[in-house]
Fold this protein.
Amino acid sequence: MTEALANPAGQPARIELRSVSKSFPTRAGDRLALDDISLRVAAGETATVIGPTGCGKTTVLNLVAGFTLPTTGEVLAAGLPVSAPGPDRGFMFQRPNLLPWLTIAENVAFPCRHGRIGGATRSRAEIADAAAHYLESVGLHDAQKLFPHQLSGGMQSRAALARLLIADSSILLMDEPFAALDAQTRLSMQQLLRRVVKTDGTRTVLFITHDVEEALLISDHVFLMSAAPGRLLRQVSVPFRGDENYRDIVMRPEFNDLKHELIDQLERLVPA
Ligand SMILES: Nc1ncnc2c1ncn2[C@@H]1O[C@H](COP(=O)(O)OP(=O)(O)O)[C@@H](O)[C@H]1O
Ligand SMILES: [Mg+2]
């Protein structure tokens, strides 16, 4: 196992937190949620944050999304300070949140409804082509004309992934997007994400999960956070994300050693 910085020298950092602390006001006074977090995710890499519930994982994503601002420290996306949400950063939540009165193709095209894909003006036909392309890439080409209630949970999740991808955001922020899926569907979504992000090559992903195996299967780097207030405890470079077959990876002894080491470490963070 190698421990290294998420951003080796020379590569542009697409996501960066510099000494970020965040506290929220409560009736009992300010409550510290994040304590001096510094992390970097290089362009094109996938990083996962794991940590006990309430440790501030969602707060980290919300800061990068620009939904909330740090109390102290700096958050940068593509080298620029984050002050508000923007189309350069796409967000995927645990629920697919598809609009029930639109078809799957219309749902996927929804981020482009103002005639733009990312920053560029596009015709209706070009947007429809893009929607078809991403539906194809998530294996939903047959479901274009169906409505969300006609899809299984896993298919809805695929549609939400296609809708995330169509907006052409260079940064993808994913907050436990597969947590509600059954084990089989979850596995196929993990493989899909790996494949799509790899083929695409232009996305930087910051992913939150409770699941150590998921973190090791989809990411280049894993950040382990302490219990609240969240601090960065450990940063692991994951050697398994190459183009190897999924089954081969989970059979490797190094994979299982690292997985159990991280699970043990996580368990020790949660009070019995
Ligand atoms: N808007 C908010 N107001 C007050 N407290 C908040 C707010 N958002 C998050 N928190 C607190 O910050 C801590 C971290 O929350 P969160 O980032 O959601 O944790 P996680 O995603 O790791 O479970 C928790 O104690 C939570 O109650
Ligand atoms: Mg959360």
Remarks:
- Helices lie at 57-65, 104-109, 124-137, 153-166, 183-200, 212-218, 246-251, 253-269.
- The pocket of magnesium ion (ligand 2) is lined by residues 57-58 (CB under 6 Å).
